[in-house]
Design a protein that fits this description.
Layout: H1 4-22, H2 24-28, H3 38-55, H4 62-75, H5 77-85, H6 95-117
Helix pairs in contact: 1-3, 3-4, 4-6, 5-6
Length: about 120
């Protein structure tokens, strides 16, 4: 039986990935303008979130799924920076929380590493 930490990671990433397919336009808004094909990036990142979320449930692939999620968290970090630097484009979200997401990303990376990647 997977640990509570693994189950929480799986639920969080799988739900976030599914959300990319339910509300793709919302996620496309946070893609920095210098990146091409925002909708494609939303669908690709959503698929990887789902794959990683499910993958951490299986001990045989947990290590690789964890590293995939860490790489994904690093890959989407520019979107978090874009949001923090352009709060006027995200007026429904408190500005302080846009900045709080930046260090939170590293907390998530540490969580994934400890739960799924550590030997």
């Amino acid at each position: 039986m997977p640990s509570l930490s693994i189950l929480a990671l799986a639920a969080m990433f799988t739900a976030a990935g599914i959300a990319h397919f339910i509300w793709p336009a919302m996620f496309a808004r946070i893609v920095p303008p210098y990146l091409p094909a925002p909708m494609a990036l939303v669908y690709i990142s959503g698929a990887f979130e789902i794959a990683g979320g499910i993958g951490v449930l299986f001990p045989q692939v947990r290590f690789w799924a964890g590293w995939g999620l860490i790489l994904l968290l690093l890959a989407v970090f520019p979107a978090n920076i874009h949001m923090a630097l352009n709060p006027e484009a995200f007026s429904r979200i408190p500005g302080w929380s846009l900045w709080a997401r930046l260090p939170l990303q590293f907390v998530l990376i540490a969580w994934v590493y400890v739960a799924a990647c550590r030997p």
